Amino acid sequence: MPEENGQRKTVDSPVVDRPAPDSDIDSTTASTVLAEVLPGVAVVFGEVPAVLKLELIDFGLVPAADRTQISTFLASIGNTATAAGNLGKAFASAQGLYRLSSTTQALLKAGGTLAVKDGANLGAIFANGKIVGQARLIPVAAVGAAQLAATIGPALAMIALQMQLSEVTGLTRTNIALTSQVLTTIRHEQWAELTALVASIDRAVDQAREIESVPTSLWNSIAGNEASLRKQLELYRLNVSNHIGQIRHDTQGRRAYLETNAEAIIFDAHALLSSLKAWTGHQALHAARARAAGAEDVDEARLVDVIARDTRTALDSALPEATSLVDSLTRELRIIVELPGRGTLPLSGKRKGSTAARQTSARLLEAIQPLADALHPPAPPLEAPGAVCAPESLDLEPYLRILRWFLEDGETLRVLGFPDQPDASDPISSILNGAMEMLAAARDKATTKILVAVTDRRIITAKTNTFLEQGEIHQEIPIERVRYVRAVTSQDKSSRSAIDLITRDENIRWHFQVDIDNSQVDTLAAVLAESMTIPDVEREELQRRSHAAIESGSKGEIAGTTCTEPTGSEATTGNDE
After folding, report:
1. 147/489 Cα distance (integer angstroms)
2. Taking Cα atoms as reference points, which of 435, 447, 445, 452 lies closest to residue 499?
3. CA–CA distance from 385 to each of 47, 114, 397 (Å)?
4. Of 147-156, 341-350, 492-501, which gets the smallest average pLDDT?
């Protein structure tokens, strides 16, 4: 997390990577050490390149004695003892904390892919694609997590708490001014009570950081706030949980709920994070107080670990809840802003025109977007996939702008298709419904087009007019439910191309306009066909039914009876598993 003194920065994260060949930087001069003391968290020693300073998190409430203890321990163990000459000065100067990027963590875990110098892995510091320095990396695995915990456990617990406090502090600071502007008419009393508590804890944290201690008088000034803080935290966790429950359990009314309660959702999400920050600050002060007393009382030292564990548990529960809620609201607001045909947006019990609705949505989005981006960075704009099955004249941009917000993290759009309205789906295979093809051909001009977006995870379908005007999708089919796919040519006079898609639950036929090249249709069918599979459980069930039918037929012959072919839904029950 890019932070400096608890404040988030909008800069590109530097990456500590493997050493580049032919580097102009002499490895013997590298005097920066990143020692991973907790998974993904490193203490930075020695000289700090300018680009790393932007990412550095100060020690905050971590006592000076703990910093010295960590430095002494790391400088004295294992292979690092051989580094006394080159790294001794570096270990004598702990500069701050750094959250390792996923790339750096992967390299540290690989271990053997990095060069070794003076008992540590040697890596280059990249920024904007250029090497700006070198650092020695000491992964937690090299030190030994058990050894770390046994020797400097309470000190590491204080580091963990400081990282937690920095994490949630950065989130709340991005949105507090905008939220105050938007929510000037609701919940004034609640907001005043919460902000007073947050301010008192912030002030105490700042004073403790300045004097690098938590004296008795300072602790006594905020110790009595614990019950009020817990009440605030539970109140807004409950509010956020209720919002999420409403969204998840009423999928049909999800959008209406989000739109109607947009302001309340922004308030509750931000209030949850604010109360969480105040609670974390209070716990960090409590831990610092216990850490100071731990020098003479082993139970106080153990309490630091307990506080760090419980605080992490609270964060791990509340942050995903807030992220989920803010994600849902932000997605809907972004979609509404993209929809020129959106009719109304009910807010505060009033019906507004489409222009006013988009303006209101834009204002709410402006308020919540900094928080949304901090909790969950948005995906980049969606580009057209390599395979598109559509008329050449079709403008894909409006579809891509909206579809962007429906895709999940890491989901890849593979192909887009725009068939006509499919034949009505029913238990009888559309392949057998030849008469429907003639009817579809007769009403070509009035047929509503369908959007088919195939990703590496699912098939998304929507009526194009509904998608563009209301941002609504019709169906999502997980690709593991695809059973059979084929591209065919309709037998009607138009000789249109078509695709038959048979899933676990239904049969669909998509017809394509005659001006769409058959190779495009074949490409769409080929991508869908990659997912064709029949799970063993379904195959076994079909086999059991076949055996049962044979046995039943044998008994019927013996009794002088006859067996009839299954009809209607019985003929396709194998697809209903």
Report:
1. 69
2. 452
3. 46, 37, 12
4. 341-350
Q: Please, is 475 exposed, middle or buried when counting C-beta atoms within 10 Å of its C-beta (0-12, 13-18, 19+)?
A: middle
Q: The domain 387-529: what is its CATH number?
A: 2.30.29.30
The reported pLDDT for the residue numbered 429 is 40
CA dihedral 323, 327, 328, 333 (to 10 degrees): 140
Label residues 242-260 b or e (16+ Cβ within 10 Å = b).
ebbeebeeeeeeebebbbb
Distance CA 121, CA 110 (A): 11
Lowest mean pLDDT among 236-240, 351-355, 404-408, 497-501: 351-355
Q: Quick one: what percent of the chain has pLDDT higher than 70?
A: 67
Sign for the CA dihedral angle at 155, 157, 162, 167 comes to positive
| Cβ neighbours for 412, distance < 8 A, ≥ 6 positions apart | 455, 456
The residues, any chain, with a CB within 8 Å of residue 441's CB and separated by 6 or more, are: 490, 492, 493, 494, 496
Global pTM value: 0.62
For residue 415, pLDDT beyond 90: yes
User: Is pLDDT larger for residue 238 or for residue 496?
Assistant: 238
Quick check: 541 and 574 in contact, CB under 8 A?
A: yes
Look up tokens 């009382």; give the residue: 297
Q: Which part of the chain is CATH 2.30.29.30?
A: 387-529
Check pLDDT > 90 for residue 150: no
Contacts of 354 (CB under 8 A, 6+ apart): 340, 341, 342, 343, 344, 345
SS3 410: coil
Q: Among residues 516, 531, 509, which one has the least CA distance to residue 458? A: 531
DSSP secondary structure letters along 7-73: EE--SPPPEEESPPTT-SS-GGG--EEEEEEETTEEEEEE---HHHHTT-B--TTS-HHHHHHHHHH
Of 279, 284, 220, 219, the C-alpha closest to 62 is: 284
pLDDT class of 326 with cuts at 50, 70, 90:
confident
Tokens of 184: 């000037």
Query: 466 burial class (0-12, 13-18, 19+ CB within 10 angstroms)?
Result: middle
Q: How many CB atoms lie within 10 A of CB 52?
A: 23
pLDDT of residue 67: 83
Look up residue 380 and give its amino acid. P
Structure tokens at 537: 């459980």
